[in-house]
Amino acid sequence: MIDTAAQEAASRAQWAEIEGQAKLPARAMIDLHFNAGPEADATEFMGWLEDRGYDVEHFPAEDDEEEAIEVQTPVVDLTLERILVEERTCSEAALRFGFVPAGWGFMGA
Question: Which intervals hold domain Regulator of ribonuclease activity B (predicted)?
Answer without folding.
Answer: 23-105
